[in-house]
Write a structure and sequence with these properties.
By secondary structure, this protein is an alpha/beta fold. The protein is built from 13 helices and 12 strands.
Length: 356
């Protein structure tokens, strides 16, 4: 007999390096219909030294990566343990953790999320379900995006579910299949330029709004090979570092103009990516707070109804869905869709570690 109630914590660290998102969630399932409640939720910001390490880890040697993985697993364990203690959370079925992506090269059969070492279960004295991407890449998939099955199960009423985080991604139903893919970088680039002006991010897009669009840069960004590829497709920070930033830097324009032009690029690529230009678009992730970006998306999709949910769902949707992926793994049910990742088959991905 499968359970019909689960008490779990979802843990997510995104490429925008805002910090570690933790959400205490209770799921109920009845007649294959899932409901959820997000109870306590919190984002624990990274210290400056950790931001520096996580940004530069893409260039680390194998030995350096192993050390980083150990250190990060201990950091993550301490953050999770403190969250459990602070909120006096008891009787957990599992902690479901994504870890932090350092390398994502599915074309080379490789992806690395640190913080998923087996010892994390013992460090926090809980069952841990984690490392959801590796198996999919081994099965020939992109290992991403993984959120779409959660969109299908938890948010079926919307035509499109979109996340605007370090990257933008979308998922939707087409011919009774869930389709999903990464669209473009978002906050990985916008934050990079906001940082140069001394800000953590461009609050509400107010800086971008003051800039002007450089039509030549916009044209070259839109012409990048990635945008011509068919899905399934996914992006990693390597694309930003090796392709996008060098292209933007080749233009001698102000940071405000770079931000404005890149925002326009993101909005246009989102509009181009959606097969139907009307219906409902459910937007989550930090980029949903960027008023200027949302306005530009609406400009390119005038017939689309844009829905931005409550702050709790907006900020913790990925933690929520990784919690669901963990629960599905515990139930022995499919939690990764081959229609989304391009893997050989649908499968139940992730490792389950028990506290020793």
């Amino acid at each position: 007999m499968k359970e019909d109630y689960y008490n779990v914590i979802g843990v997510m660290s995104g490429t925008s390096l805002d910090g570690v998102d933790l959400a205490h969630i209770q799921f109920s399932v009845k007649n294959n219909k899932w409901t959820f409640e997000i109870l306590e939720s919190e984002t624990i910001a990274y210290g400056l030294s950790w931001i520096k390490s996580l940004k530069s880890a893409v260039d680390y040697s194998k030995v350096q990566l192993e050390k980083l993985n150990q250190d990060y697993t201990h950091l993550l364990a301490s953050i999770i343990a403190a969250f459990i203690e602070k909120h006096k959370i008891e009787n957990l079925d599992a902690v479901c953790s994504h870890g932090h992506t350092i390398l994502h090269q599915p074309q080379n059969g490789f992806t690395l999320q640190i913080g998923n070492l087996s010892e994390i279960a013992t460090l926090i004295h809980q069952t841990v379900v984690c490392d959801f991407r590796v198996q999919d890449v081994q099965l020939g998939g992109q290992g991403a995006p993984l959120v779409p099955i959660g969109d299908r199960i938890l948010f079926p009423e919307y035509d499109y579910c979109m996340n605007l985080g370090g990257f933008s991604n979308v998922s939707f139903e087409q011919d009774k299949q869930r389709i999903a893919f990464d669209i473009s970088p978002v906050n990985t680039v916008l934050n990079f330029y906001a940082n140069q002006l001394g800000f953590d991010y461009d609050d509400k897009g107010t800086i971008s709004r003051t800039g002007k669009i450089d039509t030549n840069l916009l044209q070259e960004l839109n012409a990048l090979d990635f945008y011509q590829k068919k899905y399934p497709k996914s992006l990693g920070f390597e694309f930003v570092k090796e392709t996008v930033l060098p292209l933007i830097e080749s233009f001698e324009i102000t940071i405000e103009d770079k931000l404005c032009t890149f925002t326009e690029h993101v909005a246009l690529q989102i509009a181009l990516a959606l097969p139907n230009k009307n219906g409902s678009l459910y937007i989550t992730g930090g980029g949903a707070y960027n008023d200027f970006l949302i306005e530009r998306i609406q400009f390119y999709l005038p017939e689309m109804k844009i829905i931005i949910p409550s702050a709790k769902i907006l900020e913790f949707k990925e933690a929520l869905i990784f919690a669901l992926l963990g629960v599905l793994k515990l139930r022995g049910e499919i939690n990764v869709l081959s229609s989304v990742t391009g893997a050989k088959m649908d499968h139940s991905s992730g490792n389950i570690y028990y506290s020793k």
